[in-house]
Each structure stands twice: as structure tokens, then as C-alpha cells.
Protein 1
Amino acid sequence: MYNRERILDKPYIHYVVIVVVCCFAFFINNQVIPADLMESRNLATAQEMVRTGNYLIPTMNGELRLEKPPLPTWIAAGIEHIAPGSLIVQRYASGIMATLMVVFLYLLVVEMTRNKKAALFSGLALATCFNVILMGRTATWDIYCHSFMLMAIYYLVLALKKEGAQWKNFLAAGIFMGLSFLSKGPVSFYALLLSFIIAYGFTFRPSLKKKVAPLITMILLCLVISFWWNVYLLLSHPEMMLYVAHKESSSWINYNVRPWYYYWKFAAEAGIWALFLITAIVSRQRSTTFKNSWRGSGDMYVFALTWFLSSLVLLSVIPEKKTRYLLPILIPGAILIGLYFYHSLSNLNKRIDKVIFKINATLVAIILLAIPVVLYVMFYRKGEMGLMLLILSAVLSWALCIYILRSTYAKAIRVESVFWGIVLSMMMIEAVCLDPIGDIFINADRNSIRLLRENDKVRGLPFFYNQDEKLRMELVYEVNQTLKPMDVTNDSLISANSPFVFVSGKPAEQLFAGKNVVIENIGEFDNNWRKTGSKRYNWDLVRNVVIVKKNQPSTVNDR
């Protein structure tokens, strides 16, 4: 036991464990989640960069897209050069950023507590939170801005904690703050950095002696990296930039407006850790063990709780709300979970504390007990899951269930074993259960318009769609073409662009009746990931594709 504990406490083992858990969390079965509208917008813009060679002024379907800073899109464009059209590889980039987020949270907690076990608990809790797994498995840009900001916060803590000017750490913090802004504007500055500054200042009251000059330099460096692209656009497209600035600022007030209490379900974003997160928030633990690692007084638990609550309040006062915006609160939330488990290793003395811990762990065990039953009812009986996979799921789920229950109801609660049982449970779900769960979403009859990429008949032809119909960006991404609107009543426009590919929900024969054109049918394409009959099945993703050509009159050569 002694040797095992010594081995597990070695730093390189911690990094290996983090990487392995992150591989399960962000990479294995990452194709299961269907591509959504946001992913399609992001990747369509990256594809268009590669297709047009225009990297400084992004466009989406031929129109300027200046709302989003370009750094993640540049990364996606680079991946498009290496692995054209690969959604899986694009998602790997998000997985790498999510892994870096976990690593830097581990480093941050190590630096602030001088305790590698508490740091490991915090990092693995973050890696297995539902919202973090979701963002790390999809090609969306939230994971970029918050990962870069957490890196900046780590170097900022180093700079503030250590004696002297700390130029290197301040400059590193400024660089990563700038990269965060280049990823998604001020989002992470507001939701993550501002709440960190509030918590850090309130809890530790750092000294700025000899640090004013490097701090100002950090801010200036951050501003240069953050705004050079905006300045370039302001000089090249001033009217459009002013319109975008007004649009984005008004969106925070007028778009997706929800009541201030909309985020009351915040714990659900932690997934399997939800009850433990709530317990950690209300447990009133005191991390006195960690005080000696700081110059002066300060309580790590108070810091993490203040950071968490500040972020939640700041997000709640903004009228625009979406559940994915809660990603940054999971960073201090994971610290709270990690501190709770570390605190519980030696402080589950009161009966109420033991009861609460047992309830939380037992509910996780019940979920594991139910997983094979759910898989049997929803998938195996319908022939959507093989017997061997069902058996494997049952064996692993019930083994982990027994392991957690034995650890929970032992004479002395084995807290660390419960923690590892939960982490292993998430790894099992990601490796074994995600694939059949994905069948809930996957449309077996899906016939993607992506097939046109390999169709020689349409290669080199311009693409149009019926301007009277809604164009979904998923179609633009999948076909990797610019789809221009066409007025089917405009004979001269039809003639000038013939031959062309036409995409429409209505029959082309009906739309072009009497237009003196020849219509060659390519096929009907259904780009829905959702199954027919689902509430989220979208008929705007079902389109007919034809080639429209001028009707050349036949000539008779009389002799």
C-alpha cells in the first residue's frame, strides 16, 4: 500500500493519469455527438478561408463574418489543409484545448496549495464534468477562450505570488489573455478573469510591490494582441466593424434573454459531480492545511467559493443566457469538488458529513446499476446494440457500482476509492456507452449533401439556392461551397449563370417551369442527424439537388 501511494504521488504519474482520462473524455467516440449549427458555422468559415485564401477577413457563405475573432478559425483552417472535411480531427483540436485546460487547472491548484493530490482531484473532476466534456468534443470556440484565460491566470498567480518583478510570468499572462480575446472577444475576461480577480483580491490581498511596471506591460501586451485584428478591420471595413460592434453589444441585452435566475440549474453542468458540487459549496470546509503555502493569510476554500459565486453572479446579471456559457464556472467548481474530496480524506468525522457523502456516492452507484437496464430497454430490444457490448456494459457498470458501494459502506469510508470509482465510471460511459447512446440521435436514413463533394457532375459549377427558402449553414458546411441566392423568376439571371447546381426544398421542375431549361436530377439529400419523427427533425435540412442547363435548340442540317 505504501509503495502504491508513493508511486501515485509522483508528478509524472499525475500527468499520465490526466492525459489518459482526457483521452477518454474528449477523444474516444468523439464522432457520436451530431454536428450542430454552431459547429457548422465555425467550420464553414474555416473551409471558406482555405477555399478563397482570404484569412484576414473571414467570410461565411460569401458574406463577411466579423462577429467572431479569428484565432480558432485559423486553427480550424490549418486542420482543413491537413485533413480536409474531417469533423473528427477538427474536434481533436478542441480536445487538445480542453486537455490543456485540465493540465493548467492542476498546475494552478498545485501552485496555490502545494498539494498535488488536491490538484489531481480538481483536474480530474474538471475533465469529467458534463459541460467540459461536451465543449471538448465539439468544434466550438468557447473552450479556446477559457483555456487560454486559465493559462493566463496561472501565470498571473505565479507573478503575484513570487517575490520580485516577475517579468516573464506577467508577459506570459499578457500573451495568453490576448489569445483568449482573439478566440472569443471579452467573454472570458468577464466570466472567468474578472471573477478570479474579485476572489483573489478578496481572499489573498496580494502585494504589487515592484510589480507595477510589469503589470502595466502585461496589460499593454494583452491590448496589442487582442485588438490588432480589430484595428485592421476598422481600417479596411469601418462601417461593417461599427455595425458588428453594435450588433454584438446589443445581443448581450436583447438576444436569448432569460430571467436572472435562469442559471439555478448550474449544478447539472457538472454532470455526475452535481451533488458533490452542491455539497462542496455548502459544506463550510476550511482548507487550513494549505495556508502555509501563501505569504500571509488566506483560505483556499473561500477563494474557490468566491471565484465560483462571482462568476455565477456575473453571468446571471447579463440578460443573454445559454447553458454553455456556464463553462467557466466549472473551473472554480472543479476546485471546490477537489478540495471537498481532499478534505473528506481525513475530516469525515461528524455523522451528518458521513451521511451526506454516502447519499451522494450511493446515487452514483444507483446510476451505474441502472445503465445496463436502460441500454437493454432502449437499444438491445430494438436491435440497435449487440449482445457482447451489452454484456460488457453490464459487467463494467455493475463492477464499478459494487466497488463504489463497498468503498462507501466500509467500516471507514474509503473516500479516495469512491473518487476513482466515479472517474472510472465516466471513462466507462465515454468508451462503452456513448456509441449506443448516439443511436438516439443518429438518423439511419441520413443521406448527407456532403456526397456532392465527390460528385464529378457538379465539380466546377456555381451553386445556388432558392432565395424564397431558408438556407441552413449545415448545408453550406457539408457541401463546402458558396451557395448564392437565386430569384427563379429572373430569366436573365438563370441564363447568365447556366449551367449551375440548384438546391431547393421544392421540385425544380415546378420552379423552373416554362424557363426553357433542362434539369438533370442529382438526388434528394437529408442532412438531419435527428431521426424522422423527432421533434428536432428539420425539413430545412432536406433538399433536392439538380443541375440546371440551358435548353439548346436542336438544329437540322438539310441537304
Note: The two ends are 104 Å apart (CA to CA).
Protein 2
Amino acid sequence: MKRKLSSLVLCMLLAFVIILSGCDLFPKNYTAYLNKSVCTLTYADGEKEEITTEAYINAFNSYGSSLVQNGSTYEEAAEQTIEVLINRYVLLNHAKTVITITDDDKKEIYDDVYTSLKSNLETYETEVRDEWNMPKPTSPEDEESDIVLYEEYVPTAEVVFVDGQYKIKLLDTTEDKQTTNFASLDAVIEQFKNYANYNDNTNNAKIRKEAYRRFLTVLKKNEQNLNLSTDYDSILRRYVEKLYKSTEENFYITSLEDYYKTEEGYSTISVGQVLNKYKSLLLQSKFKYEANAENYDTAMLESFKDVYYVVDDNYFFVSHILMKYDETSVNGELSQKEQYDNLKTEYESGYITKKVYEEKLVELANAVQAKVRNENGELTGATISANQVLKDLTNALESPEVKTDEDKANVFRDYMYKYSEDTGTVNAEYMYVVGTETSKMVESFTEEARKLNEQGTFGAISTKLVASEYGVHILFYGGKVENLFTVTDVSTFTLNDSDIEVLTNAKLSALNNKTVFDKVFELLSDDNYSIFENMNLNVLKKGMKIEKHKSVYENL
């Protein structure tokens, strides 16, 4: 169930996430009180459904309270919470008429329930570890942030030419289902209990067992005065059944989104809509930045992802491999970073000439070692001189097998992910942007980048190591920032269906495979479903009677 959700659906899902806490969820905690209706929904077929106080409190705790924290009054938050609940119930009621949950779907829901249970237990494990002063041991997952690995973009759709017209075919991007595949809630409960109570006489086992006890204690406390069985097995089962119900409802709603986005394998979004969306973004960008040069320069250098039309040719793309200075000091001698800082201070203070400064920087750069990563993006512990990286990269780019610009980009990308320590370039949609007159990069980086721009050869790299306060760099020139289409007259500018091929062939960056089409389709997909969802809700509500019982929820 790894689906992308629209903002409206997301809010409705958040309203029903069951969140454990160490305090009472319900102040009065009486069955009659919790079952009291805050809103009655009467559907067109006469069927009635009650939104209970319990549902409202859960929703308010996870949604309405955040509105209050952001400045809304309680009354405003209460009304918005009720509206979110109404929308959820209406969509869920409709989803159940068009969506069928298969046995495989149920297994996936069971897996998600089990994952949620473990996640809840981990909250209490953390609490116990803190109290017992037993920090969690590190694991490979904890080191994941140190991994630098290229991840190819997975498109959700592609443009195809069928029966004389362009259409958007949806691609299967469903992640592999989890392998647990529980067959029932009984199996989920049994495995969770076994997991929580497994005893191998280690501290981890003791901590988990205590966490499990606290977890059940809170569940029991939340059911006080409900006249329910109080044995832990019954308490856990009731909680798991609620968790399953909530997870299943979320499955219905997210499946409804997929249902309305697809027609026999093709997107309900047309090629014309994608082109119109791109045209709109392009013209908005043109109007916005032609009128304000300062905002334009800032957007180009800091947030190029939001620029769809460039008003001049003063900007270009550049990437780099960064190899940092060693900051350790050996036998009281200055570290490489300290050596650089001293050299810069001496030069800026006039103690050494520019020639000496540059010679010393070359010596320092030659001493820098690059850290080596393996094919899984993990540091191996091995190092190689930054100079050798430059030589190897130069030779690789000059190889007879490297013939196209794409070949050059692929070679550089391989070296970047193997040696670079700049995590800002990891799977970035765009390269850095530098201007011929302005730049946000450090001076030495900017100067070398502009030299590459003057040369104007895509895929060219710096012929020497470029030293800066961050380390040494090998720069890669990614070409001018250019428009896909030229707009001379906004009143007559138009795009034809065949222009979609321009968007599908234009990559956001030479270093990744995501295209302009992918980006615009994602934006349009989210926007369109939100618009459709609201329209659909309005249609579904037309034949309904909605009675809000304000006297019940306004003073909770």
C-alpha cells in the first residue's frame, strides 16, 4: 500500500491513525459517552451512519489539535475536524461500492497492522532504554544516512502513440509486497506476542518485554469503565481489531484514488492537459521573472526547480566531486583544514603573495585523500589521493567508449557517487546553477565553473583540483540553462500534442533520468485528483442529509 496520497485524503487518513499515548484518550471513558453521535449521515438510499464521539476525539487529537497549535480557535478546529470526518465517511462509503479487497490485499493489510504494532512497541522500548540508561545498539539501518548511492528515478507513466494519438500509459510502480503474508489477525497477534516476549536473556529481550507490559497497561487504562474484559489477551485483540479496521479503511480510500486515475491502463490525464499545465507554468515564470530581476537571480541560484522559463542566457549547470580535508591533527601538527584556514588568513592579511598562496594550495590539494565507496554506496575504509581521482576520471572521459554527452554524464556520475562527500548532490533533481555575473558558490568554485562555461563543452571537467574552505573539488560542466520553447508573443504561444516528445526527452539533469514530463505529470496528477475529489464529494453529498450535533462536540 505504498501509494501517493493527495493532501485532502492524507488529512482524512491522519484523522484516523490510532496513536498511543501515556495518558487517557477519553476523559470520561464511558461506553455511552464514546458512542454518542456528533454527526448523523443519511445517504441517498436511506442508510444511516453515525460519527461517534470516539471517532471525533481520535480525529481531533491527530488533526484538529494541530490546527489549534497553528492559530485556529477551538471552534474553527472542531468544525474542520467534523468536515474531515464527514468527507472520510462519505468517500469510504462510496469506495466500498467500487473497490473489492482481495485475499492478497488482506495479507498486505495484515502486514501493515503488524508493522504498526512493532512501531508502537518501539516507542515504549525507547522509553525503557532511556530510564534504564541502555542506549540502542547501532545497526546497519542506523548507518543508512552514510550511504551515498544513485537511485534511478522510477517513472509512474509514459507517453505512447496509440491509434494515431498520444496517450499516457500508467506504469506499475507497486513495491514488492512484504514477505510476511499473514493469513489472519490471529497470526498477526500470535507473532507479535512471540516477538515481544521472546527471551534469550539479553538486555534487548528484557527491554522489549517491559515495553510490551507498558504498552498493554496503557491499552488497559484507555478502556477503564467500559465494562470490557480486562485480561491482556482480550485487550490486545480489541486494539488490533481497531487497528485493522482503520488500516483497511485507509486501503479503500487510497484504492479509490487509483481507481479514478486509471482507464484501462491509461491515465485519465490527457497529453493536452500536461502540455497546458507546462504552458501555464512557463508563462507564469516568464511574467514573474521578467518583471523582477532580483527575484529571478535568487530563484535561479537557490531554487531553480521553481523556474520554468529563463529570461536570459547568463546561467549554467555545474556539478562536482568534493573531497574534504582531513580535520585530524597528528603529533600536534595542523590538520589539513587548519592548514587551509591559515593559508587563507596569511594571504588575505598580506603575509604571503598570491603566487606563494597558490603554490601552497596545490601542495595541500595534492595531500588530500578521497574516501572510497563500494557499489552499495558504503564507505570501504580505503582511500585514494584526490589527484589520482582526477587523473582516473580524465582518462575515463577520454576513453574511446565514451562518445556521447550521456556517456560523459554517466562516467562522471559513477565517480561522483564513489568519491564525493557532498550529499547535496545525491539524487538531486538538478545540478547546481551558477551565473556569469552572480553565484552562491564559494569564489574558487565559481571562478573555475565560469572558465568551463567560457569553454562551453558539455562534460568538460576542471583540469586541476580546486581548493576551497570545504575541501578540493573536481568540477563538471552541465551546459547552459536554456528554455525548451521560446516565447515571443504570449498571446499566440501554443503547444501541439507532438510537443510532448520535447518534455519526455528533456531530463531535469544530465545526471539523472527524471524528465520534465515526469515532473509536470506528478504535479498535475496531484492537482487533478484533489480537484476531482472535491467535485466527487460534492456529487456524493447532494443526495445526502448531514446533521451535525454541535451540542455534543463543541464543548469536548
Note: The chain has two domains: 8-135+150-268+531-553, 291-515.
Protein 3
Amino acid sequence: MIVSVENIYKYYNGEPLLKDVSFTVEDKERIGIIGVNGCGKSTLLRILTGEETFDKTPDGKGSVTVSSNKTIGILKQNSGLDSDESIIGEMKKPFAKLYAILQRMKELEGQMVTLHGAELEQVSAEYSELSAYFEAMDGYRIDVRINTVLWGMGFGEVSRDRKISTLSGGEKTRLALAKLLIEQPDLLILDEPTNHLDMATLRWLEEHLKSYKGAILVVSHDRYFLDKLVGRIFEIHKGSLRSYKGNYSAYVTQKKMNTERQSKEYELQQKEIAKLEDFIVRHKVRATSAKAAKSKQHALDRIDRVEKPDESIKTPKILLEYDIIPPKELLSVEGCELCVGTGDKRKLIAENISFNVRRGEKVAFVGVNGAGKTSLLKLVQGIIPHEKGRIKWAPNVKLSYFEQEHNYLHMGLTAFEEIQNRYPSMSELLIRKSLAAVLLTGEDVFKPISVLSGGERAKLCFCIMSLNRGNVLILDEPTNHLDIDSMEVLEDALKQFDGTIILVSHDRYLLSKVASKIFEIDGGVLHEYCGGYEFYETAKALQEEEQIENKQKQEVVKPPVKENSGYRTRQQRAEDAKKRQRISAVEKEIEQIENAISELEQQIADEKNASDFELITSLCSQLEEQKNALDEKMEEWAQLDG
């Protein structure tokens, strides 16, 4: 056991933020803490580290116990780094004791050259003891450990002598996490560790944490991260902490089942209570039945009341529909350049960008920060011009755009005025109703947009998208400012939308639920992955393995290439021609299967078929068969094209 928490409270202005919280953290456990903003997650972390005090119960109960031989490390949002220090200087601080031992060993080595007899034996004994400890603590691999973590956390190309004061806020957070990983405390506490990480760094961090020797307690909105890492979920709701076994997806399933069961138990109990109360009212005044009424009252008093399921959590309603069906071949982009800036500051970040989007596809663009994902979304919409190549939209396309910084909102207007200006024919009642659907109610609709929170602005943007009824949704980081409940509402809306979606997001849980095709911008080149996010992750892992193998092969001396090595026999040329024919045939088969999948998905989504259980079951079975067939053809195509 590392930490034990029993019956603690935390009050602010007389109101309990945390109440009667109890749990333990065992060695090597991985625990995720979730809850709405302001529920007390970060406060609980500060209590565990002793940065904040807790309150006890009225009878004096309440304790936080940390095992005496265990260490706790926490990732703070303000990094906690020394701004005047260099990167390498900060990374060496966790090894201060080992560096001191190493220095002492060098001093002893110098002394042993001149000493003799008993003095030499004494110094030699000290040296042996220090050397054994230094080796046991892996002291000879300090530099390797530092460099491994720095490379993994995205500092591979950054000068180790760079001052921390020159780093951005996101870089400081990543460096603070790197330092914490090097320190290796028995309990690693992380508060939103994925906020400033790109996907490559996230993958490295997840793999590193899977093999972490200590326990991990993490607060995160990154549901994919929680799914990959944790085996237990703590949910804080209305001050209480409830524990669920399994990862985030398991928590969602368990909570839904618990809520349904509690709702049924509550309804049954309320019926029983109503019967008892009715009997008591009707019989307590009658002399002949007063005794029976008194007995029923005792039974009523003894009932262990089931708490009413919490219905106070309100979530936005996002309805995404369209009126016009566009052609099947929706968007064609050929040979475009992707640039940022203007004039002398104009910078080319990707070239020869070519891809197609078909009606009903849900495609996602991924890549490291600065790869040009947002610029690409603006390029295809004509927000930024293109000097080379061709961008062609099919007729009858109506775009609805969600911009991550919400810059198309007019900050001086109120939410009500924003909708009114865009849709002047809408009645005031309908405007208020539309805003209420995304939880903008009361006086909030008359506040300037500039004072609304990021989450409230995002919900206003979704309200505008719903009213716009576009058949193509272009979304740039739509979940950045949303809480988990709102994220899940958005996911459901996007999954049910049978139009076309073009998406940029770091939210891997959203990508895994929505995207059917992934485009990655890597090193200025666009790569296409004809599958969802899980397919993309698997492909990337295989590519990384191949890169490692190729590097190892390069170290082996290759035999000289013969001058006639480019010559191919008649049989080889015939085999190549046969291979090209098969590739062409497989590509046509893939297109046919993709068309079949698209048609099946449309039939499943059709409301007319929703009540026909047998038909839906048959369609789902066919869809699964077609997807399996597609996987087989894609694998054959990859082998042929390899």
C-alpha cells in the first residue's frame, strides 16, 4: 500500500467540495480520476501531496496516510521548473546524490594512488561500498536514461544547453513530465498530462507508462489515454468518490448499468412507499385498523431509501441534419501546396497535396503540431488561397465549419445577437430554444461572447452548425473546450450524421469512434490510411518497427552491386506485368466493397428501418462480412504493392 485515504472532507465557504472520501492506492496500480470541471479532482491531488489540508468528520475521523518508505511525485500545471536552469541541468537534478557519489569516488581514486596499509584499506572499503551502491542505482546509465526520456518527450532535436526560460508553456509542461519520469517516484501523480502532447509523444508516453514500475494516479479528459493505461476509475460527483474496475470504456458501461438498475429500484420502492403511505392515511383514524396502520408506519420507517438517480447533469443536444444530397464524388484536391504566412514570411510546409473525399466519408487529418492540418482545412474552403494545383467541390455542397479558436464569432455581440444576425427570420422564441439546446440559457444568452468560457463558445458554434444544416461538416479540434459528457454527446451526433465529415483532432477517442479514413501529414507529405484510427495506429507501429530494422540493416556491410543488376529476364518482366494486373483487379474489388459498405451503413442509419429488428440484425451481419472482406483485400493489396 502506498496511500490510504479515510473519511476525508474538504469545505469551501461552508459547502463540501469533497465529502467522506475513502480509498487506497496499491503498488503498481493505474488509476484514472474523472469528473466535471470544479468537482475537486485537483484539490484531491494537492491533499495527497500535502500541499493542501483536509477537513475531518464531526466526530474527528479522517486521515491521509502515506507509507514511510514511499515517494510521491506530481506533475504540476505550472511546471515547477527552475527558469534560470538549462534543460540538461534540470534533468540532472534528480541524480544529484549519484553525481555526488561519483565525485566522491573520483576523489577516493586519487587518494588510493598515494595511500598504503590501513589507510588504503579504509579508503578502498569506502570506495567499494559507494561503487556497489552507484552500480545498483544504475548510475552508469544516467545519460542514457535522460536522453531516452528527452527524445520520447519531443526534445530530441533541442539543444540540451537551452535555458528553460526560453521554452513555451507547453514545452515546460513536457519537460516537467520528462523530469518526473526520470525521478521515478513510487506514486506518479499526473494532472492532465496529455494537454500539450502531439500523437507521436502520446504514443511514446503510453508505452513508457505501461512499463512504469510504480503506481500511477492520473486526472485526464483524454479517454483514449485512460483506456490504454488505467485499470481503475475514480469518479468524483457532487463531492463523493466512487470506484469502478477497469478502464474508461468499462466505467461507461458499468455506470450506465448501475444507473438503470438504481432507477428501476427507485421506481419500485416509490410504488411500495406510496402503497404504505396510502394505507396509513386511510386506516390510522379507524379504531379497528389503527394497530395495522401503526405497523405499516414502522415498516415505512425501516425502509432503507434508494437514492433517486441523479438527473441533474444536463448535456447539450446537438442535432446535425442537412437538406440537399450532394454527388458521390464530393471533393478532389490535386497537386496543391500548403503554405503559412504571406509575402516574405510565406513558408512552404507541404507540397503535392492530393486526395479525394466521397459522400458519406468521415475522414480525419492528423500530424504533429505545426504540420499544417488547420491550414489544410482553410485551404480546401478557400479561406487561404492556393497558387498551385486544383481544388474542386461537387455541386450542391453546403459546408458547416467549426473553427477551433472560434474566430468567426463576433466577440462584441451576445450569443442571442450572433444567432439573430445569422438567421434574421428566426423568432426570438426559436432562437432561445436553439441556444437552450446547447445549455446557453437565462442571462448567459445576453452576455457578450467575449466573456463566455471556451466550452460555452464551442456550444454556440455547434448551435450555429445545427441551424446551418450543412451536408459537409469541417471540424477543427471540436472537443478542445468540452467536458467529457459534452464530448460524448458530440460523438453520438457525429456518428449519427450520415453526411460527410472532414475532421482535425488530437482527441484519439473521438477519432476512433468517428473516423473511417485517416490522412497523416508527416514531413510535408500526405499519407493515406484506408481505415479507422485503430488501423492507423497499427500501421504506424509497423512502420516504426520497419524503421528500426532498416537502421540495423544499414549497419551491416552490403555486397557491391553488379553493373548488370538492373537487367530483368523475360520471366521477371512477365511476373511484374501479372502483378500489376492483380493490383488493378484488387483495387477495383476494394472500391466495390467500399460502395457496398456505404450502402449498408445508409440502410442501417435509415429511420424507416429502425424498428425492424430482424432487418437491422441482417444488415449488421452483412456489414461485418463486408468489412472483413475489405480487411482481407487491403492486406492483399498491401502485400502486392510492397
Note: Residues 248-283 form the longest helix (36 residues).
Protein 4
Amino acid sequence: MPSTSRPSRAKTRLVLRSLILSLACVSLATAHASSVYSIAASAPGAGSVETGPRIKNQIGTVVQPGAAGVSYTASFDRGWFEIELSGLPALASARFLSYPPERVRQDGALLAPTNSFTQTQIVPIYATGPGPEEKRRFVANVKSAGSSQFLLEVLDSSGTPVCSASGSAAQMATCDFETILPQGTQFPIYQTRFDVRATNQGNVSSQFEIESYVLTTGEATGVFSGPGRVAANDEFRVRATHNLRLTPPNYYLATFLRIYSATGQLVREIPVRFRWDGTDYSEMPLLGSYDPVDKKWSDGAAASFSQRGIHGGTFIDIPVNATSVTFRARRGDFSDELPGPGAARDIDLYLVPASSPGPDPSQSRVVKVSTAAAAFQATTFDDSAYSSENITVTGPDLTPGRWYVMPVSKTGEPMDMTAAVKFNAFGPAPDFQAGHYFNPSRSGHGAFLDFAGDQWVMVWYTYMKDGTPTWYYAAGPAPTAEVGNAIWQSPLYRVVWDGNQSFAYGVGIGRVTVQGDDSFQFSYILDGEAGSETMVRLGGPGCVPYNGNGLDATGHWFSPDKPGFGYSAQFEPGTEIHIAYMYDAKGQPRWLYGQKNYNPAISAVNMLQLSGFCPLCTAVPTTTTQVGTLVRTLGPAAAPDNLPGLTHMSLNATLAPPLSGTWSENLPAGLLSARKDCR
């Protein structure tokens, strides 16, 4: 190749941020199983109520509307379901937000006429010092199956009534108001108290139930996700995720689905509650963290979960260059200073390395294991407040790949548990290459993983459960020495489009663990479902000819003047591949695929719409339908570094059923990722 200059890291980061800034920074919520609820949203307060058992991991029966919002009972501690909505006005720039879900306190009593009972709810508000006022939303409900009339009252800590409401057997009484931490509060924890009182004003004795919960009013995008735009009175679905791994079985979490037609324009609010029945627990990759202040990766990874006797689905991917790792388990959380209730504090720790059993490359779903397969076990009696186990594995015993970290209650008594891994030492990292990666045993989907200065960027193209194509976006700081330069973790975003701009919902976390120069283990939580696949690089070194030199244009391209969609291009000797990341009529993310023999003079590429298999589904052969044409323009000075590459991208496509919509964009292109030197 001829001598070339490279763009600075600062310039590359600027280009990257121009795309990321069009995606919202969002919080993570996780999920697992799925069902569908039908809600006529035009009816005030309309919702639907769980009426029967849910079918695990598939779309279930449409449940008829009720009056108490959506109440979902999950078989897994993490899961997802879908809410089917209709009757809304047009949502030109739809947003589906919520408050972080909080635990519902429930109390009951049998009351004779004129009798009362009171529930006391403490409302903590955390403040780090003088600052703006903070708000909490307090919700209290009282219901009765038999009383013809009852009264709900909420009193503050001084006994002064702040809210009252009447109810009957046919009508639940509700108090819903905000409480405020005054501006400038100096102490770290501010607490106030509310008493919720139910009084039977009917003429018969009846069973009463009080429930109350307190919500932080800062909205998040990690619980619900939906389309980018909706026509008036259209029917559509919103995906709801739940994460109950820290919530004991049969405790409810509550929040509100808050539907916006545009920024600041709230259209509808629907109460939603989640409950885990304790039937089963979800597989769980142990995840680390990145400190944006210190700009360092943690060398540890941990997960805590509520009320288990054993957890056989907790796993960690060990990179190929790790040389010493300590595995840990304990009762409660590692930050706990006091033991939890109950006399039993002992916990055992079992390790099952990948070779026993090895993952099936044709399956991405993570299986659970038993202690019978354990190659390493720590078991000691420890009656202190810090009951824990530690196993350090080094040298040839530390095989790269998947390891299960299994905490076990020695007595079998369910308890809160934490599993954790700390990386102690690493050898030299592989010369890991960016590029196009896929699983040969599950061909039909894949990921483009690119470097962009001190950031990594990934677009994962795959399918929804109905087989229609979709894509997810990830971007974050490159791995550092704290993780052996071999572990990368980023939120996964589902990006939607309103016709002019994109909006991102955080729908999971992806973790790349390097296993060689051109392979990695990709483990993830997507809508709460944990999966893992071994990915290998597609293609090899070498440039395609262009203007008498080599063309180094493989990477991720986008339109700097209109970010939010883009293209992955791959140029290999003899062939070129293009994937377009665009949106359907509702603004949901979709992708098209095109491939042709490489000829710089022929710019048109036929684009195909594929139908395939979801990340955790059994792989099936894909089917294709030609739906449009991409025209790529090569030039000697592409943005942002003025080197040969793509200077213009045009796509015209009409999606095939079951999808709908057209996509037509014709704009200058710029390179988002770093050049690969034709490697």
C-alpha cells in the first residue's frame, strides 16, 4: 500500500460522538419470557390483568383489558413481555419511558364496620449535599372485595392528612402525589414517613388490602421500548422488561409506562407491575464495570441474586491471556457489613470450566450445570458475618472460555447470594483484529466490530423472534490493562427512528472476551435473556485494487449530516459486502444485505431482506427477498481522513411483508471506524 496519514484520535472521537449523540445515554433493565397484553389505551386507566399461567419464552395469549393496569407474573426472575396498544393519537416522535421500578408493600386485615388499620411507609431520599430539590412519587391503593364503602387516607409524619379517597368493592381507592426533598438539604439521607389508613365505612365486615410504593421520578428508557413513530389509532406493541433477580419471589415491583408523542408531550400513563413466582431463575453472565471518571475498567465482575439455594447458571468468559483468576461466592452482597436474618450462613462454591461440559457452538442459549460436573470446589465452615468462599485458579488449570461459578447454600435454605470473579494477572494480549465476525455454526447473522480511536463500536445484525431482521448498537471505551486488553463491555441499544432522528433504548449488555487474533466469545443479556456465542472473523488480509493502489475501506460508514443510520462495508479480494442499517414504517430498526463481485466501476448492489432466527432461537436456513438497490460511490478522498473510500451512499428499498415501509436516502458518507490496513 502507498504511504498514508492517519486521522488523529481526537478527530475519530469527534466523528464517533456525532453518531452517539443522536442516541440517548440510557439505563439498563433486563428481561426473560414473553406474553402479550391488549390495551385499549383510549380508555382512561385501561390496562390488563394477568389471568393465567404464562408460556415461557414465547408470545402467549392476548389478554383482554382490565381496569388495574398491567400486572405480569413471570416464571423467570428476568423476562420480557409485550403490551399491545391501540386507540392513541398520533405519536410523531414516540417515546416510551418509565420510572425505575420499586417494590410494592402490601398489608391486609379483616375489618368490621367503622374499624381501621394503618400501614406505615418510610420514604428515604438520598442527597449527597446541597443541591436542587428531589422528588418522589408516592402511590397508595386500598381495595376490598366486600365493603360497599371505605375510605383511604394518607397522613404525613405530623399526622396531617395529605390525601384521601373513597372506594367500594367495585372501585379501588387511590392516592397519588409527589413528595419533595427541599433544595439545599445537607445531610446524606433524608427520610419522611407516611401513614396509609383504610377505614371500613360499609355495613359488613370485609377483607381489606393496602399497597403502597415510592418511585424516583427521574425517567429512564430501560424498562419499555417501542416504535419510533405511530399513526393515530394504530395498533402496536411496546416491549416491557423486568429484572427481579434481587427481589424475593411473590414480591411486586411497580412503575408506570409513560407514553410521549414528542419530547415533553405526555399522552398516556399506564401502571405496570411485575412479580416473579419463583419457578425458575435466569442464566446470568458476570459483568464488570467501567469508571468514566478514572477511565479504567474494573478487573472484577459480580452478580447478586435473591433467595436461592443454588445458582447453576452464573458464568464468566475467561480470555485467552488470563493467567490467574480468583472466583468468589458469599451470602448476601460483598458490601454487606452485617449478616442477613437466619442462623444458616454457610455457602459452598463450585466451579465448572468450559471443558466440562463445552458449549455447543450451534446453540447460543446458556445451559445450567450441576455440582456433579464441578472440577473445583471450596467448602469451609464459617460462622462469621462474612461467610464466603474463594478459589484461585492459575496456570494450565485456567482454561480460556466459559466457566460456571456456582454458589450453593450448604443447608439448602434459600438465601441472598453473590458470585464474583477477580482477574489477578494476564499475559500478553492477542493482536486482536477489528472486522466482520460470525458464528459458522449459526450462519445468517453476525457483528461488525470496529475500532474508533480509544473506542470500540459494534453493530450486531440479527433477527427478532418472528424472524424479521433487526440490529443492535454498542459503543464504549476500548479495553485496558485492567482487563488484560481483552475484555470489552458495552450497553446494547435498540435504536428507533421518527423520520428525522434516532432515539436509543438500552435493552441489554454485550461483553466481548478475546480468544485469539480473530475470535472472541460474545456473551450478552438482551431483553433479559442471556446468551453466548463464539464469533470468528470473516475474510482475511489483502486489499482490493483501486486507482492502481489498494483500497482500505472495510468498516462502518454513516452520513455525518444525518446520523442515526449507517452501513457496514467489507471489501475482500474478488467480492464486496454491504449491510444497510435502516428502519421500517414504524421506525423499528431493520437491515438489508447485499453482495457482489468487486468491480470499482460497478456501483449498484442488489439489497436483500432476510428472514432468520433470533439470538436464542435454534438456527434455521435464512430466506431472502430482493427489496431494493444500494449505490455506493468510491472516491480518492473520503471523509474524515481524505483517503480513498466511500464518498456517497444511496439506498432505495421497499420492505417486503410482514414488514412495511420504504427507505430512500442519498447522502455523502464518512468513515466512523478506524482504517484496518487491509488486515
Note: Confidence is low (pLDDT under 50) at residues 1-37, 40-67, 334-343.
